[in-house]
Amino acid sequence: MEVVRLTKRVGDEGLEFAEFQGYLATFDNVDLGGDRIRKGAFKKSLTENPEVPLLWQHWPEELLGKLVDIREDEKGLKVRGVLNLAVEKAREAYALLRQGALSGMSIGYDSIKDKMDGDVRELLEIKLWEGSLVTFPMNQEARIEG
Question: What total of structural domains would you count in the chain?
Answer without folding.
Answer: 1
